[in-house]
């Protein structure tokens, strides 16, 4: 699914109006009708409805919702904010229509003192600004937003298209923004919905179809995308019935150190569950027995060092591996850093780099420029910060993520609720599978194993990254459904991978 900018969404509206053809008023009716239907499905007429409308087209949506809900027996109170001397033509049209139907239920708000007193079972609908914001809200309108937010613990707040005050494509840090429990948005996710800093605002997001013209959607390029099942089905390659273990690649996993062999075991198990044909694990001497007993399907190479891996670069170029994954639990010893440098000098194919290998890149920044082109880097936010520096907000961090992926020609993901995957061509994909139960030790090691296994099967780096992150999150969702988010562990993600392949694609 494409994620369009606010400007592109306005273009999509205009394109639909010109090419369907349909009037802007009828398109507004279509969008508001979807919202009214959702509201009526979730709230009975016993709930008084208070709709706060701005004077643009988002406010026009609110006016149509008011009219439609009135027609179905709801007690509707329409509060129009007088923040501008002018209203949009569609707003004016919808206001005239509503005035003819229900003149006594329309109120004007010109200051915070005009904020209505709400009965106990009322619902609040925010239709003040939507995607039309170009600057932070200020003055008495900001005060109205604060008063709406003060009602949050007493009344449901439903935002139409966007919570008012939230910028679709820019940072809204420190801006007054409506804190909605639910957002009813149209046709596409907005970038703002996918950023951690905006978590308090949108609540549960529901994307409602409004029939925007498919030609605009297919023909218009987008920088941002949201991964979905349809995309995964185009990436996934079913198994060949005449295949053998050599068909699905030989992966090398460099992982583990004294006290951190659990990370290596989890990553190895995940790599095997992801379908790799053969797996060799390079581990320090202290880890050989642990790995051989814990995961007998994995072969082992034992390092010359007792506690750390410091010689894993030897013989790499002639070993016949299809993919290498490095990082889980390897620690940050100087000898490990030196071997990592020699590995990257000898191995010129994409590899998966995670955990302590990322930390070594941040300690020795020149190594970042030795990483083979097309490699997969998988930092969490703190690792990303150590690698590339701090940013003022999530939009700036997303820009830095994309910039570094292009500059270094790498695939870099930034872990989070909606993990962002930046590609060397400048595109960014957000993944929506996964849940907070995956915020547990070892979850990242599992992802490293999955990605290494897919890369060894000769999925392209982009395909491996997109499919691997999707499967990892989907397996986490299945594990949480069975065990709860609180009780699930990283091992449960691995155990659910088989069902993720069967059900998630």
TrEMBL record:
GO biological process: metabolite repair; nicotinamide nucleotide metabolic process
SUPFAM superfamilies: Ribokinase-like, YjeF N-terminal domain-like
Keyword RNA-binding recorded: no
Cofactor: binding details: Binds 1 potassium ion per subunit.
Keywords of the record: ATP-binding, Isomerase, Lyase, Metal-binding, Multifunctional enzyme, NAD, NADP, Nucleotide-binding, Potassium
Entry binding sites for (6S)-NADPHX: 57-61, 130-136, 161, 263, 329, 380, 445
Cofactor (UniProt): K(+); Mg(2+)
Gene Ontology MF terms: ADP-dependent NAD(P)H-hydrate dehydratase activity; ATP binding; metal ion binding; NAD(P)HX epimerase activity
Pfam name, any one: YjeF_N
Amino acids binding K(+): 58, 126, 164
Positions of AMP binding: 415-419, 444
Enzyme Commission code: 4.2.1.136, 5.1.99.6
YjeF N-terminal domain sequence ranges: 9-218
Gene3D superfamilies: 3.40.1190.20, YjeF N-terminal domain
Reactions that this protein is recorded to catalyse: (6R)-NADHX = (6S)-NADHX; (6S)-NADHX + ADP = AMP + phosphate + NADH + H(+); (6S)-NADPHX + ADP = AMP + phosphate + NADPH + H(+); (6R)-NADPHX = (6S)-NADPHX
Domain YjeF C-terminal: 228-504
UniProt cross-references to NCBIfam families, sorted A to Z: yjeF_cterm (TIGR00196), yjeF_nterm (TIGR00197)
Subunit structure: Homotetramer.
Functional summary from the UniProt entry: Bifunctional enzyme that catalyzes the epimerization of the S- and R-forms of NAD(P)HX and the dehydration of the S-form of NAD(P)HX at the expense of ADP, which is converted to AMP. This allows the repair of both epimers of NAD(P)HX, a damaged form of NAD(P)H that is a result of enzymatic or heat-dependent hydration.
Family (UniProt): Belongs to the NnrD/CARKD family.
Protein name in the entry: Bifunctional NAD(P)H-hydrate repair enzyme
Organism of provenance: Chitinophaga ginsengisegetis
Lineage: Bacteria, Pseudomonadati, Bacteroidota, Chitinophagia, Chitinophagales
